[in-house]
Amino acid sequence: MKRLAGLLAAVALLVGCAVDPVTGRSQLMLMSEGQEIALGEQNDQASLAQFGVYDDPELAAWVDEIGQAMAARAQRPHLPWTFRVLDDSIVNAFAGGGGFVYLTRGILAWANSEAEIVGILGHEIGHVTARHIPERYTSTALAQVGLTAGMIISPELRAVGGELQQGIGLLLLKFSRDNESESDHLGVGYAVGAGYDARALADFFTTLDRLAGSAQQRLPEWASTHPAPAGRATNVVQAAEPLVAGRDLTVGREAHLRRIDGMVFGVNPREGVMEGATFVHPDLLFQIDFPQEWAVQNSKTVVLAAPDDGSAVVALLAGRREAESLRAHVGAVLEGRGAINIRGEQTTVNGSPGFWVAYNIEDGATRLAIRETFVEYGDLVYDLIGYTVDDYGRFAASFEDYQTSFRPLSGNRADQYQPDRLRIERAPRTATFEALVSDTPAANIDQLALLNGVERTSTVEVGELIKTVEAGYPRR
Ligand SMILES: [Zn+2]
Is the pLDDT of residue 393 over 50? Predict the structure, then answer.
């Protein structure tokens, strides 16, 4: 199952013409600092809606504390620096405009020390202080921002299969190699200033390289949005050497591992999981069948599916009822969309009160044909949408089958769905890594070795901490 990975990540951004105080380079800035901050805040809200914050206050507090300490000594200390841990398994870190910096739980899981995390934060802080974000921001990216709010009823999404993917690509702001090298150098300085061994960032690059080369289902986004200049790890170590020489700097391997003990690892099935073509949501206690063979994308705010040719879309949304009755709620929604040729009636969907409607929306020369069912279940109204531009007759049955398949999930069954979790254990004896973890069921040994930043045949000393993965359900 793909998610709308990083749809908003890096949308932030900003841009007057100024000689940057950090880099000394002249940059074309289309936006003032105030605009940069405003957009950063706006995109922060969107990022929170898209990913949510990972629920671990202690972990969040540590990330914020070390981030603030580095930002306070950096070149733009007056920005409203904000450091967040997002609830996403993708291995990613990114900077929004105006001082917003994000780590995912995925990157925290794959890092092996505090110093690696500090190096990653330093690098992202560098993108902000060097004003790379305004510099790279383009009108193309700006045009894509509308995708999130109006995406469901937007005729531009008629070819959702291809265009949506492309949109995501455009949104993941790509920095130049010079930007990356500059941020690496700035980040090394910030990390050492905070008392950490900046050479550790090179270790994380090694993990990224191995991840990218393995059969992982989810590629490390930080690698794909951060083009790696040849010898990047070596350059980091070279930049760090003169700064670290003769200093007593922290690596913090054990402290980091202790902090991530018990952390959710990988995709969290509590937020919805595909079983075949059925989407099961254990926390909201429902299930629904998507059309067979359609590609499904699950994000925290919407689940979308489309056939390969992108000629139709079905979507699942949920929200509060905003009127005194379901009928009034539906009326308000249709009026807001400018619906015409409306027909439909009250219905019951597997025991829940519902209301189905079919209608058109016209936008210039484009006529959208929509079948939509609203279902009241729990304390939410589920909005099940199917729409196409050209071919309603071809998709009407698929839309109806999808919408009428919405049904409850029993609490007993829902309880079975649990995420995998990281467990930190002490090696009971000195042995090779593969010998120590050979009876761990959840992950294969190669993946575990990668997760620990070691080889299968590396020697682990008695008492050393290692990461293992406790299997949840369903097994992935
Ligand atoms: Zn970067």
Answer: yes
